[in-house]
UniProtKB/TrEMBL annotation:
Protein name stated in the entry: Beta-phosphoglucomutase
First-level EC class: isomerase
EC assignment: 5.4.2.6
Protein source organism: Labilibaculum euxinus
Cofactor note: Binds 2 magnesium ions per subunit.
Site (Important for catalytic activity and assists the phosphoryl transfer reaction to Asp8 by balancing charge and orienting the reacting groups): 115, 146
Amino acid sequence: MGTISACIFDLDGVVVDTAKYHYIAWKSIANELGFDFTEEDNERLKGVSRMTSLDILLSIGGVELDQETKLKLADKKNKNYLEYILRMTPDEILPGVKEFMNELKSNGVKIALGSASKNAMTILNQLELTNYFDVVVDGTHVSNAKPDPEVFLKGAELLNVLPSECVVFEDAEAGIEAAINGKMKCVGIGSPDVLGKANIVVPGFVGFSISQLNF
C-alpha cells in the first residue's frame, strides 16, 4: 500500500447521499419564485457553496434579486434542508462505507472528513459515525471552496501527516481537482466520465478494500 497514512472523505455523495435533500430544499425555493428546478439542474450545484448555488438557481429561473433577499432565501433553504437531515438515520450511510472504515481502522490508517458542508457534524451525529473520524474539517473551518485544496490540506495538517500520504475520496469534479491541487492521491466515487482525473474511479464502497489503494 506504499505510504498511505490517512484517508480523507468528502461527505455528500461519498459517505451519505444528502444531495436529494439539497435538491428538495432548492426545488422548493425555485417553486416559490415561480419556476421549476430539475434534477439535471441540480447537478450544477454539486460541491458548490450555498450562495453560489443560489446564484446558479436564480440564473436558471432568470430571476434577479438584491443581496439581502438572496441571503434570506439561502437561509430559508438551509432551514428546509436541516429539517430533512435531522430526520436522517444510520441506515442512510452508503453501502460499504462502514466496512471500509473498519478496515482502515484495523490497519492503523487515520480517517478525516473534508467537506464544504457547514452541517457536517449534525449529519455525522445523525448517522452515528462521529467516532469513526479522527478529524473533521467542514465548511465552518475553511474559507476557500474546492477546487482549492484548503479543506484537505487542513485535514492532513490536523492528522499530522504529509499530503502525499493521504488518499481523498470524492464524488465531485471540483473535489478531485482539490485533491490533485493538494498533491494527494484520490479515488473518485461515481462515473469515470466525470471523475476521470482521479487515480482510480469506483462506483461505490461495496467490495472496496484497502488493497486497492496501491497507487
